[in-house]
Amino acid sequence: MSRTTDIILTALAPAIWGSTYLVTTEALPAGYPITLAALRALPAGLVLIMLTRSLPPRAWLGRAFLLGSLNFTVFWSLLFVAAYRLPGGVAATLGSLQAMMVILMARGWLGTPILAGAVIAAATGVLGVALLLLGPEAALDPVGIAAGLGGAASMAAGTVLSRKWQPPVSPLSFTGWQLAAGGLILLPLALIVEPSLPPLTALNLAGLIWLGLIGAAATYAIWFRGIARLEPGAVSMLGMMSPVTAVILGWLWLGQGLSWLQMSGAAIVLLAVWAGQRANRPRASARRRDTLERSLTVTKLGSSA
């Protein structure tokens, strides 16, 4: 596939994640964030493992649990804390800082150069998200801010390490390993800190199925596929599609107002995402070297598995 096709396909993942707020508020019981995160991750991970018939080899168990913790356990838990303690606009704006964090982490862990255009695009995207979501009711709760920044850092680290560690399996298998690992960590945590779920309605089950099979299994497989094929900075910029989708769904589905300022913010986000893809485009020599390195890594891992 061409790079443009990879970008469009990868962008589908955060665009679909933008439905999480709508589904959570309209279809799921309130007050059980960790339990619902566990029910979202673990069944989806087990389904993917059964479909692909692929368990992580012993050498990959530690990495699978670390990546599952960063991408799901820590990220989702802190995301819910930030959402509960901060207005949605503040939480989402903090989350959009992930793109900047990925640029810095990729420099340290992957040796990726810090490009001025990529930094400008990431900063512009944060501004666009702020215009899109921040309102006069924005409040700065210290715990909520720490959770928002921690969640962004966790997802950024998971993105960069998922690029650094590429197992010789399909994206579906890689996603299944991480979801199952993250869910196994979340489950006992949910049993300890949260009360039992009430009886689930048909709407509750439909919401969980959507968030698990589509919002986790399918979309994260697309996301990790994109991480393997695209530059970390380019992938992280695509994550800004999520708040744009959330606002559009709120306008279409819930009848929420959409001001000119918000529309300007959405346009700025889309422009920043486009600029981020341009800025992070590798040169031809770098693309050939990266392809060769990934091929050698896969061959080495396949022979040692």
TrEMBL record:
Membrane topology (UniProt): Multi-pass membrane protein
Pfam families: EamA (PF00892)
Calcium found in the keyword field: no
Keywords: Membrane, Transmembrane, Transmembrane helix
Compartments reported by the entry: Membrane
Main location: membrane
Entry keyword NADP: no
All residue ranges annotated as the EamA domain in the record: 7-133, 144-274
Transmembrane segments: 7-24, 30-52, 64-84, 90-107, 114-136, 142-162, 174-193, 205-223, 235-254, 260-279
Official protein name in the record: ABC transporter permease
Organism of origin: Thioclava pacifica DSM 10166
